[in-house]
Write a structure and sequence with these properties.
238 residues, alpha+beta, Alpha-Beta Plaits, Aminopeptidase, 2 domains, seven-stranded mixed β-sheet, four-stranded mixed β-sheet, 7 helices, 11 strands, 30% helix
């Protein structure tokens, strides 16, 4: 990084990223520019606390400080949401409609500058899904997809990327049951990347980037749950 605070330009080395602690303070977390979205580079980024976020090329890579996470044991379910969950008028699947989930996330966010999930991004995460590292949870009502969430899993952490809702509460239902399943698999938390009031209502909190990176280094020593995921129906009654 130059003295003027210009982000790094990535090399052809798919595993190389500068130290996340060197990210800019303004805009918060901008670390590097360029590169590509090949699976090797994406996985290397997540293992180092870095993620891509851009609306047009070149690709921008980020590691904000503080970092927003949702500790699974801290999930907050409001009284009104408990009533919604009690009705059970929906079905839940995992990794059955990954492409449709990411396409819906892109459509819902299309009007939000800076968060457009480009066709290039969609193709990259679909490839990660096919390799068994990216996963989705789907919420369906009467056979139609109405909500979902997708992200990347490494070790015992889930790196949430985006979620969508086509009817009230569908995205909340998705994250609630994702948390239930991850807890059953002894995961620790979901990386939510950037803070939002919506995430705050669900129990998300922020931690210093350095603390996040330390936890990530420990997580990188744990084997990943690679392959197709299946939701355990028994969790519906808990």
């Amino acid at each position: 990084m130059t003295e003027q605070g210009i982000p790094y330009f990535l090399t052809d080395d798919l595993n190389y990223f500068p130290d996340a602690n060197l990210a800019l303070k303004e805009p918060n977390g901008l670390l590097a520019i360029g590169g590509d979205l090949k699976p090797e580079r994406l996985l290397a980024a997540y293992r180092q606390g870095i993620f891509p976020w851009y609306d047009k090329e070149p690709i921008l890579w980020w590691s904000p400080d503080p970092r927003t996470i949702l500790l699974l044991n801290n999930l907050h379910i409001s009284t009104s949401m408990k009533k919604v969950l009690h009705r059970h008028d929906f079905t839940i699947t995992m990794d059955e409609q990954f492409t449709q989930v990411i396409q819906n996330c892109a459509t819902v966010r299309a009007a939000d500058p800076g968060t457009w999930i480009t066709p290039q991004m969609q193709a990259a995460y679909i490839e990660l899904h096919e390799l068994g590292y990216a996963h989705s949870l789907e919420i369906c009502v009467n056979g139609s997809l109405v909500g979902g969430i997708y992200g990347v899993s490494l070790g015992k952490l889930f790196f949430g990327e985006s979620m969508f809702s086509l009817q009230p509460n569908a995205s909340k239902i998705a994250i609630i049951y994702l948390v239930k399943q991850l807890k059953a698999w002894d995961f620790e938390f979901i990386d939510c990347q950037m803070w939002s009031e919506h995430l705050g209502t669900l129990g998300a909190t922020t931690v210093p980037r350095q603390a996040f990176l330390q936890k990530l280094a420990q997580n990188n020593t744990i084997a990943s749950k690679v392959g197709k995921w299946t939701f355990e129906g028994s969790l519906l009654s808990r």
